[in-house]
What does this fold into?
Amino acid sequence: MSEQIDQALARKYDAGFVSAIESDTFPIGLDESVIRRISAMKEEPEWMLDWRLQAFRSWQKMKEPDWAHLGYEKVDYQSISYYSAPKSMKDKPQSLAEVDPELLRTYEKLGIPLHEQEMLAGVAVDAVFDSVSVVTTFRAKLEEAGVIFCPISEAIKKYPDLVKKYIGSVVPRSDNFFAALNSAVFTDGSFVYIPKGVRCPMELSTYFRINELNTGQFERTLIIAEEGSHVSYLEGCTAPQRDENQLHAAVVELVALDNAEIKYSTVQNWYPGDENGKGGIYNFVTKRGICETNAKISWTQVETGSAITWKYPSCILRGDNSVGEFYSVALTRGRQQADTGTKMIHLGKNTKSTIISKGISAGNSSNAYRGLVKMGPKADGARNFTECDSLLIGDKSAAHTFPYIESSNPSAIVEHEATTSKVSDDQLFLCQQRGLDTEKAVSMIVNGFCKEVFKELPMEFAVEAGKLLEISLEGSVG
Amino acid sequence: MMLTIKDLQASVEEKTIIKGLNLTINPGEVHAIMGPNGAGKSTLGYVLSGREGYEVESGSVEFEKQDLLEMEVDERARAGIFLAFQYPVEIPGVSNMEFMKESVNAARKERGEEPLSAAEFLKTAKAACKQVNLPLDFLKRGVNEGFSGGEKKRNEIMQMILLQPKLCILDESDSGLDIDALKVVADGVNSQRDGKRSFIVVTHYQRLLDYIQPDFVHILADGKIVKSGGPELAKEVETSGYAWLEGHEEASA
It folds into this structure.
């Protein structure tokens, strides 16, 4: 049986093509002059450059963390290029008609049509290619509602007060090794601002694509939801199939002011490397949100890609009655390694958090959940519920759970449930006896296992996530 | 002839369980297989459906002129072999509805038919659900998730009704059922007797055969059919149990 499962899980990566696009790429290496050049390319104000340089100086004094349950060869930060942009972007296109058709084709191949007439109904898209944002759709319609959705490089110039006030307010520039690196060299990403009381009229989404060889992608996303506003945001990520490891170190900051709600969903499908662990993206990401009174932040992630995933989307529940949620599906196969989870920091009274984590390990992969639930001294009546389920496919994969609970308030309640199960021969046999082939059977069982998380995704993407899981599982069943 | 089993010998974990079994089943026939525990009754069902770990050592099985032993589990299922499990397993999070829709459409595809739309399928599924006396919300619930023993058995019969197989193997579908549930199961099976569909009814007790009238009864002991007859053979088992088999074995040894 496990041989069959292995075959069914043999890897196929549909997004693994390289686009032939002329690019302006910096030579490899990192020092202050590189940061000055990035800042100059982006025509940034002085304060932004200073901020970057301070981050860089902190980073130089920091050590790469090694506490995660991950084994990999450390990155040589001097052998990567920190900036790459399609040549045709030099004179920024004013409309889709001016965008390099090869670029549009790239996104089309990925199933993300950027042509106005074929756009995903009701979803505004910001497409980030290597280091720059290529195009943002539906901007006019969003502007009518007062919503700002644009590349962060543009926001720095157009809305400096907002950016200055909030950038680094949730993830300080020296928060950790990867966040500091990102703060120094980030090139683009999305900026979202929802005014007071506004319900964003459509889903917002960003698609990240790494194309160039030996290029790191360092995007930075900042979402600000003013009092009583509401927004749902989705990001998707892919990269070509390459033998070299590529670095992705992003920072995402969410600010949910009083009574605001942010729903942030991720479908991450970076190239995971081949069966033997050659190539693949190193995904070191810092995502964090802050909730003021009665605010709510909900993280949903479906992680199927990357050779290494190091990622803990977190909520700081500062305001009373605020709510944090984390729903996660992490699938690893082949030689993939994931160490992912969340942090729920309860500071306010009656704060609530829910963590539902589903880890699926197949092949020779390793999948770890790491979560911290912290109840501060003032968090009277705070509650957390954590459910952490692992599913093993085959007999060579591993699942680990590292829950940390720190409570400084006797009235706070923390509940933790954990299960580990296997796709059993009995389940597979039942499915096959009803006429389903092994692949279909496994993907059905795995989809069932993930149902609680998938139902949290926006409708359009729940179907995508199911399909992605199915493709990812192809050939991994035995 | 629908199914021809010749000199079948099969083992589990290197222990031979089926030791030279012969059986022929024509379309529309109901064959009951009775016998003491450990005789190989369930093993026969698993061997016919192709379960991994059940090794055929020798002999042949022909199903509708195809070499059944050459086919994978799912191929056999799509060719029309259905096994109603003695202990149906749970598949959490996968609704009965989507599970059966995929199964039914896999069988339809095999026959070169168009898949059923969600609405078409829902209609037939509701009817089947009612037929086995399960509330309609069972279609939405996870496959066997939190079902009682009797509900699981009825759910198996519902799947059988939906899949419209050619040969149904019922593996102790009566075990653990009260008399009302037993009748529901039997009614479900009887409703599918159309003169073409065949059944292998595996049971330890004669009780089920009061409700599903078999054409033939076979007594399986130590991996072989030791006696075949009509429905009266089942009555004989009821009165005298399986103790007489030991004498039979001595006689044949």
